[in-house]
């Protein structure tokens, strides 16, 4: 295994790139309601130091927004696509409206009812 060069994380982003703040919207399809998906999403987001929100939709999906350092957001996107809550079954994850932001719009990771 070749160690990452100093100043790079495991994704190969430089520290400066990895700390760039981004915002991205998401919608998760599959068996994602009634399986504590929102609670686990909030917990994972907080664990990674991200802010944003998560809510159920009337289409049977879960949607929300993530904001934080790009390297942490990428980690959360991977989690949303592949892990989710233990009883969930994720069919598809859509990510839209990704953009660089100069400051966070939220102070916490909220479950929206």
UniProtKB/TrEMBL annotation:
Its EC number is 3.6.1.7. It catalyses: an acyl phosphate + H2O = a carboxylate + phosphate + H(+). The active site is at residues 38, 56. InterPro entries: Acylphosphatase, Acylphosphatase-like_dom, Acylphosphatase-like_dom_sf, Acylphosphatase_CS. PROSITE patterns: ACYLPHOSPHATASE_1, ACYLPHOSPHATASE_2, ACYLPHOSPHATASE_3. One of its GO terms (molecular function) is acylphosphatase activity. It comes from the Eukaryota. Residues 23-113 form the Acylphosphatase-like domain. Belongs to the acylphosphatase family. This is Acylphosphatase. It comes from Prolemur simus.
């Amino acid at each position: 295994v070749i160690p990452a060069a100093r100043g790079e994380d495991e994704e190969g982003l430089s520290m400066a790139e990895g700390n760039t703040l981004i915002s991205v919207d998401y919608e998760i399809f599959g068996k994602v309601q009634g399986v504590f998906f929102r609670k686990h999403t909030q917990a994972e987001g907080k664990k990674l130091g991200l802010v944003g929100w998560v809510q159920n939709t009337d289409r049977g999906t879960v949607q929300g927004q993530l904001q934080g350092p790009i390297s942490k957001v990428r980690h959360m996107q991977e989690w949303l696509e592949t892990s989710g809550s233990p009883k969930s079954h994720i069919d598809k994850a859509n990510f839209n409206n990704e953009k660089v932001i100069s400051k966070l719009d939220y102070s916490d990771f909220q479950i929206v009812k």
